[in-house]
Protein 1
Amino acid sequence: MASNGEVQEAAVRVIGGWACPYAIRVFAALKLKAVDYEFLQEPAGRKSELLLRTNPVYKKIPVLLHRGAPICESMIIIQYIDQVWASNGPAILPAQPYARAMERFWAQYVDDKIAPALLVLRGLTDGDKDNAAAQVSNALQHLEEAFVKCSQGKHYFGGDNIGFLDLVLGSHLGWFKAVEKIAGIKILDEAKYPEITAWADRFCAHHAVKDVMPETERLVEFSVNSAVKTKPSN
């Protein structure tokens, strides 16, 4: 408690949305590092004064507030978490420079190719849904091959532990399942992507992920009830 009787703010707070994949990856990163945080749900359909004040450039979620100092953009936030809480468990980013560069490359690929296509398939942005589905399929084929190289026979892109690329791709898995119901298509096809499908099951069952990954039916309901088209966060 603060000296004046008011409740003191948590040292770590996250402005985000429970259904936002970019926020989900931040929540999971904090849980991986065993960092306690306060979740500040951004109001649906409008931007809060706190968001506008802490991210005046992009005006998007998520925003990490660390002792009041704002850090924006989900990938930057994850790297910040990895550096600030370096001693809390395994590293999120690889120590080896080439491996680190490869995970960053594929992480950006995920957000450039898969994220926009999912928005089309959800009906939140205009576009041809067949083309969007093909784009996701092509991206997953590349990521299937990338998994074999990055994981080196282990459970995650990061090896023995969840790493940077796991968090970035994994944050979209809830929407993969929701889009399968919304659009009536199969995204995680075990016959096409056996490695990614098995990885997805392991990722979602991980203790740092299972409590922050929304249920499929809740995401479907959220998507159906979204009356206003919104731009993606990042």
Protein 2
Amino acid sequence: MFDYKGKVALVTGASGGIGKVYARELAAKGCHVILVARSKDKLETLAEELSSTYGIRTFAMPADLTITGTTQLLAKQIGELDLHVNILINNAGFGTHGRFEEISSEREQEMINLNVASLVDMTHQFLPYMQQQKNGIIVNVASLGAFQSIPYMATYAATKAFVLSFTESLFAENRHLGVRVLALCPGTTKTEFFDVIGTTEMPGGINGTPESVVKAGFRGIQKGRSYIIDGTSNYWLAQSTRFLTRKFTAIMTERLTRPASFPALGKLK
């Protein structure tokens, strides 16, 4: 059983959704919390709430992780406060939606920087200390989309497939070093994510909650899992791809995710 009390937890994307709930639950377990997101006002409000409610230390650190070099600057600021991160929740991320050629290349690159590059660099910054202490937790928020392609969210799904593969590798590397590494894979979740991508047209609707996702994350760490999927139906959906060809899965997913506003594309082969 991991002892959370007195540990320092860093949560990215902490201003709302899954990140905010993660920060609150870690504070409730007695962790001091470093909150990272772009919104200074939201972070400071949350920091004050958590500090007064749970009697822990909080640190609001506004930062744009899409910008190269931000993670190194963040690590330097944390070091100057004489803090050592014991728990890292790499939650920050966003998606894009639409036909690939119609999505801004700049926007796609920002997404890759945030979903992939900053997550890898944050892990580089804080994993060595955990290894030295032979104790620590890293949770990388992936997605149900990590298990298959998602037409009209092609680059997003690819970034999350990277996160899953990367995390499972680190899990194996660190399993005897006292550091627990988990890929947390939510399905569709009621957060601001779908406001950012500009659609709520998802097969089966948007049913998960940040609370259920975070609960799954703690359960995955407790059980020593390399990955965990939020929700039984989501789990079986991910496993179903093992019994179907990748081509068939991609074509069927395209039919399910094609926006109603898009014209029919004719017979698919």
